[in-house]
Specification:
This protein starts with 9 loop residues before the first strand and ends in a 6-residue tail after the last helix. It contains ten helices and 41 strands. The chain has three domains: 78-88 and 434-698, 3-Layer(aba) Sandwich (Rossmann fold); 96-233, Prolyl oligopeptidase, N-terminal domain (Methylamine Dehydrogenase, Chain H, 7 Propeller), CATH 2.130.10.120; 343-431. It is globular and about 70 Å long. It has an eight-stranded mixed β-sheet, with helices on both faces. Strands 5, 6, 7, 8 and 9 form a five-stranded antiparallel β-sheet that branches. It has 704 residues and is α+β, with helices and mostly antiparallel strands. Helices cover 17% and strands 35% of the residues.
Amino acid sequence: MKTYLFPLLLLVVITSPSCKRQVAVKYPVTNKVDTVDNYFGTNVADPYRWLENDTSVATAEWVKAENAVTNEYLNQIPFRDKIRERLTKMWNYPRFAVPFKEGPYIFFFKNDGLQNQSVLYFREGLEGVVRTLLDPNKLSSDGTIALAGTEVSHDGKYLAYSIAKSGSDWNEIYVMEIASGKQLADTIRWVKFSGMSWQGDGFYYSRYDEPKKGMELSNKNEFHKVYFHKVGTPQKEDQLIYQNLKFPLRNYGVATTEDERYLILYESESTSGSAIYFRDLAKKNMPFALIADGFEYEYSVVDNIGDQLLVITNNKSPKKKLVLIDPLKPDPQFWKTIIPEREDVLDNVALAGNLLISEYMQNATSKAFVYSADGKFLHEMSLPGIGTLAGFSGKKGENLAFFGYTSFTFPLTVYKYNVEKNSSEVYTRPVIDFKPDEYEVKQVFYSSKDKTTVPMFLVYKKGIELNGNNPTMLYGYGGFNVSLTPSFSLSRILFLENGGVYALANIRGGGEYGEEWHKAGTKERKQNVFDDFIAAAEFLIAEKYTSSEKLAIMGGSNGGLLIGACMTQRPGLFKVAIPQVGVMDMLRYQKFTIGWAWASDYGTSDKKEEFDYLFKYSPLHNIKDSVAYPATLAFTADHDDRVVPAHTFKFMATLQAKQKGDQPVLLRIETKAGHGAGKPTTKVIQEATDLWSFVFYNLGMTFR
């Protein structure tokens, strides 16, 4: 393998011919280096390897040049400013998150409308005076410092909160005294993939060692460790609770039960499957003891009931069940099934009052059922239609609970729920400049390439004409057991208002039908995911919702991989492609940050049989010379340390070099932003403006 270490950006340009509604594009020509890797006898060139160096001057200059080209193109779209104005107007409404209770206080997040970050408020009981606890908008002038997590001590005395800067996965933890609002001196750094779990006057958290300078956003994350921090002490005095030096590529997280008696340790080596351990904190210096070994199944402890643990698991139950485990007799033969596996997928269980609130997913929509503590079915909760139950919040022994509900045309509404009476009433309902009654939501089912039946949601204006001429956005994800359920999006409403059809395909790889549905889209079966998505597009065309000239596709992260694979496998099927923060280099993804944890879904190029199928669909490696690919606007960000931007950099450099014809293939690189979480409202609106401007323009739409 040969590598030239000092690549230069050649500022030579080529001009794409223009056509009707097209703006001429001049792309920077990206320098190539002579880098070739040999995988089991197959030589694979990687001419843009130098773009993996995210801190180099050459990469910075390339990013600047690419953004300049993209901005020049977008600036010439005549209705871009009008789209921004409409989105800003729509966004400007008060919205609330689901409240939660700790100690004597009820806490909730609220955004007045255009605030960059939502503010955390609290009040004593339902009638107390509302007070501001933490306003993250004061942490930075541009809103790029966001809350990554919050955890209130069980007695309501302290708030531990983590912040993320510029969208990075790296967090810092701070502590506040709630009653007084006093900011304490506690500061904890280099935290990643961690919650905060209180016990007494301290909390548990997970972190890595400080990374090498200059490698913070790309270096492989190794040796995750668990610590205990006592309030009022410096980080250097934090107690190391657990580490495993034999396995550097494992993650560890801990949680305490509500009564703070048990400490639960979760061990994982990928995005699915975990081992769990426990420690009885009432027994001083007790070591962690194993409850469930290996990584074949998933376990989630709901809470303890006396000396036993209530656990959700898919152990020999792909759609999950609820069991009661004696941690001193953890063998499955001693488990007591409280809620057995059923046809629908068990999403979550919450303890509220003296009852169990179970959340299920039925054809990718929410259902909720109430059981007694010993598993006797009592009744179904009444929910407001086809949609998604969001954030059920309750406490053992207390009848007051809250939950949120949302759908495609139903913005998140918060309900107050009386557990004992099984009755709910609206607590907060947003008022939006939007008329939901003018739109239809339906679910259809179609056949994939192998005849598997796949569900898909469709949203559009009532009275639509099925003439094959409707601009359509098809969205998907298809991985990591993630389920796509109905949700509200302001930016999507803009598309619907202007005659667009929105389609959400629940393809394999997700969790919509349990672990079997997930596994059917992993490793050597990953092509099923792409086939499902392509079949969704073909269904929309066959049923005359749209045509290839009016069809756009979009997805983010693993969904970005989906878009990259589908547009390279069937380039003529789509008019527009929007891959967002996508995994595009399937041969090297495991070498950066947390990428190694995705191997359970993907496999890695380190094994020949896995290299063979990865190489067949890897988006970067399947761009062909002189093929007309869809008009493409790819999104990434300079602080994305989840899916490092080099994936998108290399993919788009290759696409620009090989694209045939006049369809633009552009790259939008956000600054001071990461994988997506915590992005300030100003950046969200600007990103949505550019996305829909590009989509409208290239689908031949007129903004009204």
